[in-house]
Amino acid sequence: MHVVHTINEVRAAVAAARKAGKTIGFVPTMGALHAGHGSLVQKARSECGYVVVSIFVNPTQFGPTEDFSKYPRTLGDDTTLCAAMGADCIFAPAVEEMYPEQNLSWVDVEKLSEGLCGASRPGHFRGVTTVCTKLFHIVLPDIAYFGQKDAQQAAVLCRMVSDLNFPMQIKVCPIVREADGLAMSSRNRYLSQDDRRRAVCLYQALCLCKQQVEKGVVSVSDLVRQISEVLTAAGGAPDYISIVDAKSLQPLHVIDRDALIAIACRVGPARLIDNMLIFLNPLRFQL
Amino acid sequence: MHVVHTINEVRAAVAAARKAGKTIGFVPTMGALHAGHGSLVQKARSECGYVVVSIFVNPTQFGPTEDFSKYPRTLGDDTTLCAAMGADCIFAPAVEEMYPEQNLSWVDVEKLSEGLCGASRPGHFRGVTTVCTKLFHIVLPDIAYFGQKDAQQAAVLCRMVSDLNFPMQIKVCPIVREADGLAMSSRNRYLSQDDRRRAVCLYQALCLCKQQVEKGVVSVSDLVRQISEVLTAAGGAPDYISIVDAKSLQPLHVIDRDALIAIACRVGPARLIDNMLIFLNPLRFQL
């Protein structure tokens, strides 16, 4: 497995693989990799001839009061995991390599970026779509893999690729969870032992919601209240609890179509997110 | 020469050319082609193995009160010109092919888009950068060719390609003029015989400016006043007369670096633009 740090190096590696007739799979990450990322690399490995993982903590998607400087950086461990999962190349650029001068060009996805995490993290998705555009142009993948854990990010990027005719597809892969149900996240490292026990409340709230929907509850306000009770009883501080159209991410009053239940909740020092998809006809869930 | 109307067709044509080892040259246009466009096609022909011209009057770069619906559409003549200049393929999509659903994804280039035509045409450059991103992703050229006539457009697109790491380059080609100096433009068709005589005032004003700079005048306010007098004496109504840094497009007070003199002026029913580059060290001009 190659580890490269410059745009020219990764372009040369991909061009050689392409010339050898291989399809290119790409897993963009911010590092601090866990089994969720691992599942994306494995999926890419199973479908593509050449697999690139990027590791870049992107400053433009962090707000001024957010955790950019203390975001975990673990390139040694990340390299081990990527090699074990079968990646061919890690692209780990410095900030100056990705942003050699002041960036003036931005990609924005209206509406889909505005609610949920977009409301509490202004500018976040503009940073994500812009850096993904840059990375897609550098790596030129056939398929890029993202996790359903960041549901809004996945919806925003799928729409961007479609609207702007990127010559590639995005595949969104299921959430990977710890044994007790906590969704894997690089930010779980911020949790104390006590916080870690509490953090399962996001998953428990989603499971309760699932049971309620199975029982026939379709009122969004009823479901949100019950979710809120579970989170606050565990000592969590909800940032938002939203039930939205699964595709447009516009708010729903009743669950009368495929829906996304999305939660952001502070537990100790960490802001955690989790979500569940509800598909009607026939009723099924993706937790 | 092929004329195709769908994204799949132009992608297939380009992929076949690429497979045959050819480089791809691309000239994006809104049709109503004239000798200025012709010079871009010829330049592409001389440098690339396969030349694509797109003809698409892009609705998202016109304001609500602008001339989208009456913009000239002359596909027959355009095809003849492209064939004569050696193009291999015309891509002429319908609006529904380029925008099959409401477009939510936009590319913006801050600062460079804000002055000059950006100030009088809000949203114009966002439409240009967005449609060019789409076209670049569809055609996947090695080189795209634009005219210096639209100086701000060229600066904005060069910055976009650089900031967002598009895997291609942009070449900006000199303005092509009528015998009397009027810059070639599709909008010259809007001019009556009388307007057409007056329209040369933009070129005359730029020539006067060049003479003044050669004489040592470096005060932007003095130069702007003299340009304004030429335009209004001819019956033109200036929209803006701007002297800006040639690269950043930020306003100058004195010409102490490479500069762009840019004019937008109404003559009869048409809003015409023209410009001149001033290079210091040694002093030379590109009119």
What is the strand and helix layout of this fold?
The structure is a homodimer of 287-residue chains.
Chain A: E1 2-4, H1 7-19, E2 24-29, H2 35-47, E3 50-55, H3 75-85, E4 89-91, H4 95-98, E5 105-109, H5 116-120, H6 124-139, E6 143-147, H7 151-163, E7 169-173, H8 193-198, H9 201-214, H10 220-233, E8 237-245, E9 259-267, E10 270-279, E11 284-286
Parallel strand pairs in A: 1-4, 2-3, 2-6, 3-4, 6-7
Antiparallel strand pairs in A: 8-9, 9-10, 10-11
Highlighted features:
homodimer, 287 residues, alpha/beta, Rossmann fold, Pantoate--beta-alanine Ligase, Chain: A,domain 2, 2 domains, 6-stranded parallel beta sheet
Commentary on this structure:
Two copies of one chain form a homodimer. By secondary structure, chain A is of the alpha/beta class. Chain A has ten helices and eleven strands. The radius of gyration of chain A is 19 Å and the shape is globular. The A-B interface holds A 7, 11, 103-112, 129-130, 133-134, 137-138, 140, 159-160, 163-167 and B 7, 11, 103-112, 129-130, 133-134, 137-138, 140, 159-160, 163-167. β5 (105-109) of chain A pairs antiparallel with β5 (105-109) of chain B.
